[in-house]
Amino acid sequence: MDxxxxxxDEWDDFELACGxxxxxxxxxxxxxxxxxxxxxxIEFSKYLSEQxxxxxxxxxxxxxxxxxxxxxxxxxxx
Length: 78
Fold this sequence. Notes:
single chain; mainly alpha; 4 helices
């Protein structure tokens, strides 16, 4: 996780950066990686929930609001 804090520009595309980092993980560090990834998912979900509070749905049509909510709530399934 320190690599993310120390080099945030390299982690703009999390999936790509995570894949690159995963190839450097040895079998004895896999549990540490899995725990860190789990923590990321929790913190990222909190971040997205906070960002969602900034959306003014009154200014959006119902269709756009539904699509936005679906994207935020199901981003990890894609």
